[in-house]
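pls read this stuff:
=====
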Amino acid sequence: MAYWFNIVTKQVETDDNRARDEDVMGPYATEQEAHDAFATARKRTEEWDQADREWEGDEPPKK
């Protein structure tokens, strides 16, 4: 079974009750992964933004 995180309702959904594609993130293997989807996406975006700043020379590399 796949799990999805609904960005509108902030609820975890399954294939059986999933909203439209535009409203969900996923699929995820576990309910917990789906529940943590926003936090995971935020963390990865921050890491990528930092890498971009370092690549562009705006900030020294993190150690």
